[in-house]
Amino acid sequence: MTEIATVKQRFGIIGNSPLLDRALDVALRVAPTDLTVLVTGESGVGKEFFPQVIHASSARKHHKYIAVNCAAIPEGTIDSELFGHEKGAFTGALEARKGYFEEADGGTLFLDEVAELPHSTQARLLRVLQTGEFIRVGSSKVQKTDVRVVAATNVDLPQAIAAGRFREDLYYRLGTVPIAVPALRERPEDIPLLFRKFAADVAVQYRMPAVTLDDGARQLLAGYYWRGNIRQLKNVAEQISALEQSRIITADMLRRYLPEQHAGAPMAAGSVRMDDTMSTERELLYKVLFDMRADINDLKRMLSEVLQSVPGHHPEPVSDIKALLPSATPGDNYGIPAPVFAESVDVTDDPPRSLTKADVQREQIVRALRHNNGRRREAAAELFMSERTLYRKIKELGIEEE
Questions:
Q1: Which of 18, 192, 320, 329 is the most exposed place for a label (fewest CB within 10 A)?
Q2: 10-residue stretch averages of pLDDT, the chain, 402 residues long
């Protein structure tokens, strides 16, 4: 059995794709060294396995392995979590505390979602990587640590550097050895194997017969885009196993569990990947369009109710507002009493200004903050973004919170 096959068996990695084998081969080759590794790939491709493989295959395997999700730690406490703090360094610091760099001394520290680190923390991280030195929050004493750092991100870091969100020097320091984990659509030969594994796990857990795929369903799986990658495939396998009575799954049955907007999307190795920022902006635009459609429908309904109250008017379905308004001279209100406004509106001859993407984002964020009484966590959930991304957008767009 080859070394790669042994690693797959040990860590439960499924697949025979050459791209996957290449990524594992790089991980095994770099493991005996102390070089910093940057693992990149879309969300849901299994990036978290590679730091474990590197640590288990290195001389540090008998020391600590600590995984940190940088996106899950609030910006105000991230420095304390990573580098520790002294007693009284801030409100609530009742005693001194070691950080992850101190705890993992001699071992491996996995920094997941490293692109979410704030700039001040990026500067501290760069110093640790270059000199092995760090300073606890609230202290002036320089300490040393011997930690092997493996970082991961699903963000396009060169784009983040161009946008000023990530330090270029830190990017090159982290990416001493890059490992690109392939997307699921780039390894179609592994999709049936993964589906069978997930279906078998569900069958064992809930004591039911495992589902199987017919030829049409296997072809549909292999040709699907899989934006959520392995995580999405597992979700589909679990849904089908739990909900379908038939244990043989056809293409028509499978299609009900696949979102239509990506069904049949072409596969292309090295296709453009969408980072979190682009995805967030798209979700914001979708919400604005849905809100606009709802406002237009409300306007049509209100206009229809008003016209029904006009004597001699025969109500018709409102499909086009302009079609319902007869031609009239300026100032004619079509027999409808003029509305009374609470405050005057200045009318100018200037053409209306078209909304930019930033205007649309600002409006949607302000609306979400007001709807949630300024609570960022709830507003971020409503906008389908992380709390840190929302904080960054507030600063970028110059939004003043009430």
A1: 329
A2: 91 95 97 96 95 97 96 92 91 89 96 96 96 94 96 96 95 96 96 95 92 94 93 95 92 90 40 42 54 64 67 52 46 44 42 62 83 81 77 82 62
